[in-house]
Amino acid sequence: VLLFEVLVLVSVEHSEGVRCFAVFNSTTGECHDELGEVDQDDCCHNPHYGYLTEEGECRFCGPDVWSSWSSWSSCNSLCNQGVRQSHRKCLGRDMSKCKDINDNLHIEPCNGTCCDVKEWDAWLAWSPCSVTCGGVGVRKRQRTCGSPPECFELCSGPSEETESCTSNMLSVNDDDH
């Protein structure tokens, strides 16, 4: 009976259950190839594995390392000076062991490019007249802003023109022959 109680006590002491993955991508910080749910300590017997935390974040079983820096974000200003940023994450079981844990964000100045180009492209051809058999109709033509889509509001003036038109062409109805 004593042996049974010792085994029960030993088996109760274990780490939390986690979803374990055979592949941890240190560039993206993502886990791939799920192996199933096991104790965290059992998963991390292989230092190349990764596991999913309760918060849904993938962690590396190996020594704490920094991920690669992310691509730079877009400039936060469409026109004039702004900033852009790049970030990285500490990957591992004990994130406090990454050197300088606060070195996870780079910020640099940038200039928005919307001020550089704010001109309309040439007008497109006029549409056909809206009437084909006498009378007064309308026709339209359009143009597009030569700036990038996020800078569209910087092109001033209309994107479409409308004018009156007449047509002297008569439609021929085949039933009248």
Automatic annotation (TrEMBL):
SUPFAM superfamilies: TSP-1 type 1 repeat. Keywords: Disulfide bond, Repeat, Signal. Residues 1-17 form the signal peptide. This is Complement factor properdin. It comes from the Eukaryota. InterPro entries: CFP_TSR-0 (IPR049536), Compl_asym_regulator (IPR052065), TSP1_rpt (IPR000884), TSP1_rpt_sf (IPR036383). The lineage of its organism: Eukaryota, Metazoa, Chordata, Craniata, Vertebrata. PROSITE patterns: TSP1 (PS50092). It holds the Pfam family TSP_1.
